[in-house]
Design goal:
heterodimer; A: 296 residues; mainly alpha; MetI-like fold; B: 269 residues; Rossmann fold; three-stranded antiparallel sheet; 7 helices; globular; disordered N terminus; binds adenosine-5'-triphosphate; binds magnesium ion
Chain lengths: 296, 269
């Protein structure tokens, strides 16, 4: 034969080594590039915030509304700093976060069980599936009056509203996570000898993790929103002040800079939990599976 | 390379082993599989009988949809036959798929480890066993790589290692190299051939690629469609190292391809 084709095992081994080398990624993963991408993702939101504040300032400077309706950004900032200095803001953030975390944790347990049951039992799914999706659409503030009647002006009332807000998202998250598992994976699991609980533990749960995480993330957003709605209404001297109660207090006192400062605190806490907890977690899971590409 | 010979048996509807003394690893007795029992729909597999000897390398050829995957699933025990019997005295089976069926949330090494864990291998043996298997598929030191960091060929080699981690004696391969480029496929043929010999495996290998079947198999079976049955078998005894471009492989491939075409054309009428 005239063509030079591999004939011996060594030829094939060389060829194989060459193929493997060519197929291995050539380090685009260096730190500098990562830092640059990080920077690129940080400055646009900062710019957007500056633009927003500029508009606020302009509206204030043009005296579109009287000052007790539209305070200046500076007075809101002063109020924010004063809240921090007196420690009142920290205390309110702590109280609210504590309630939200407890409610969220309970929602995770209930939502996960309901979600797994939805994927496991077709009858349960046909019956409760649409109902749970409906609950997800229902604004959880609608539960507040009922919660006050059932639980009084208490922490339990607020917890109830949080749980009703967060649980449907979490249940639907794990349900869609499981639904999106390629049918090949459970078959491979069976092939490898995973049955029953082992199949859930080693195949179903890890395979559905991306969907589950986005459900958790959405669940957290709903928990935080629901809590603020509940805190605005459930007010009693016996309860610790949360951010929602502080906000309502600002309103009754006609303290508009305080209102703005508290809104910003609520926003800030929500973003902080998202940035420090859910975003890195999700990124890690997606990167492990090569589902992230070059995005940060 | 003119001393190569191609031996061909006459067409037979029931294929069987040559009168050989080796023990039987897989035995199908008049197996029929029906998915859809509406009238007028032929069974996917009808009255299929097959014996595969221990240590044999059998390739299965047939048009798309003729029931090759169904046959492998039956042997693997993922499906059960509508009628007939399937016996697998040759030991555990492992099934390999066309796409890499590795779990993307685990590293290459952990994928192999999961097979060991679920197979009941004692924990202390995992590490040396993973190293041995990675070495066997020429992937030493790549155990920490994520699945997405591996090329298609490397993934299929890890999948092969995972199949071997199941302590399988019988390897069922469902078009495992179909998605790979020609050079990579060529390399993997060599790897598979070597491992088949070293580990003394029984292999049933499904493919669309006639040359691949002739390159690898000791026996090639041609299947018809609707219903799926064996129509012909070739016993291959090309001497010396066989390559995809060997003249003996080419000659027999041409012959088999002709038969496959005839079989497909029959359905157009
Ligand atoms: N679970 C199932 N339910 C119903 N029909 C099925 C099922 N699995 C396979 N079939 C049908 O059985 C026939 C054979 O399918 P099979 O996948 O075994 O073919 P194949 O030879 O592997 O095809 P290909 O070469 O495309 O992989 C097809 O017509 C397919 O539609
Ligand atoms: Mg198939």
């Amino acid at each position: 034969m005239a063509v030079n084709t591999p004939t011996s095992r060594d030829d094939f081994a060389d060829l194989e080594a060459g193929l493997d080398a060519l197929d291995s990624p050539v380090g685009p993963n260096d730190r500098k590039a990562a830092a640059r991408r990080m920077l690129n993702s940080v400055w646009p939101p900062i710019l957007a915030i500056i633009v927003l504040i500029a508009f606020w300032w302009a509206a204030y400077a043009l005296k579109l509304k009287p000052e007790y309706v539209l305070p200046s950004p500076a007075s809101a900032w002063d109020s924010f700093v004063a809240g921090l200095e007196s420690g009142a803001t920290q205390k309110a953030v702590f109280n609210s976060l504590q309630r939200a975390f407890v409610g969220f944790a309970i929602s995770v347990v209930i939502g996960t069980i309901i979600g797994l049951a939805l994927t496991k039992f077709a009858f349960f799914r046909r019956g409760f599936g649409p109902l749970i999706t409906g609950l997800q659409i229902l604004p959880s503030v609608a539960w507040v009056p009922a919660a006050i009647i059932w639980f009084g002006l208490s922490n339990e009332a607020m917890l109830f509203v949080v749980i009703m807000g967060a649980t449907p998202s979490i249940a639907n998250g794990i349900k869609s996570g499981v639904d999106q598992i390629p049918p090949l994976y459970p078959r491979v699991g069976t092939m490898l000898g995973a049955r029953g609980l082992n199949q859930i533990r080693y195949v179903i749960l890890p395979a559905s993790l991306p969907g589950y995480l986005s459900g958790l993330r959405q669940g957290w957003a709903f928990a935080w929103r629901s809590l603020m709605a509940a805190e605005l209404i459930v007010f009693s001297p016996a309860l610790g002040l949360g951010l929602g109660q502080v906000l309502d207090q600002n309103r009754t006192l006609g303290d508009m800079p305080g209102v703005m400062a508290t809104i910003i605190s609520i926003l800030f806490v929500g973003i902080l939990v998202e940035l420090c907890f859910f975003a890195p977690l999700e990124r890690r899971v997606l990167r492990q599976r090569g589902l992230l590409g070059d995005k940060l | 390379m003119s001393d190569q010979t191609v031996a061909t048996t006459e067409p037979r509807v029931t294929v069987d082993l040559p009168p050989d003394v080796r023990p039987v690893a897989v035995q199908l007795e008049r197996v029929t599989k029906v998915f859809n029992d509406a009238p007028g729909v032929p069974p996917v597999l009808q009255d299929l009988s097959l014996r595969v000897a221990s240590g044999e390398f059998v390739c299965l050829l047939g048009a798309s949809g003729c029931g090759k995957s169904t046959l492998l699933n039956l042997v693997a025990g993922l499906e059960s036959p509508t009628s007939g019997s399937i016996e697998v005295p040759g030991g555990r089976t492992a099934l390999m798929f066309q796409e890499s069926a590795l779990f993307p949330w685990l590293t290459a090494g952990k994928n192999i480890e999961l097979a060991l864990r679920l197979g009941g291998v004692p924990r202390a043996e995992w590490k040396p066993e993973i190293a041995r298997l990675l070495e066997l598929v020429h992937l030493s030191g790549q155990g920490d790589k994520r699945v997405h960091e591996l090329s298609g060929g490397m993934r299929q080699r890890v999948a092969l290692a995972r199949a071997l981690a199941q302590r399988a004696r019988i390897l069922l391969m469902d078009e495992p190299f179909a998605a790979l480029d020609a050079i990579t496929r060529d390399v993997l043929h060599e790897e598979l051939h070597r491992i088949w010999q070293e580990a003394d495996l029984t292999v049933i290998f499904v493919t669309h690629n006639v040359r691949e079947a002739v390159r690898l198999g000791q026996r090639v079976l041609l299947m018809s469609s609707r219903p799926g049955m064996f129509v012909r078998q070739w016993q291959i005894d090309i001497e010396g190292p066989r390559r995809i471009e060997s003249p003996g492989v080419s000659a027999l491939s041409a012959e088999i391809t002709e038969d496959l075409r005839r079989e497909i054309r029959r359905h157009g009428r």
